[in-house]
Amino acid sequence: MSSPQPATAHTNGLNESRQAIQRLVNLYLDNVPVEELDREQLAETLYEGMSDELDRLYRAQTTLTDLAERWEQMAKGAPDLGGDLFITEPTAVQQRQAERANTYRKAAADLRDVLRTGRVPHDLMTDAELEQHGPQQ
Question: Is the model's pTM score more than 0.70?
Answer without folding.
Answer: no
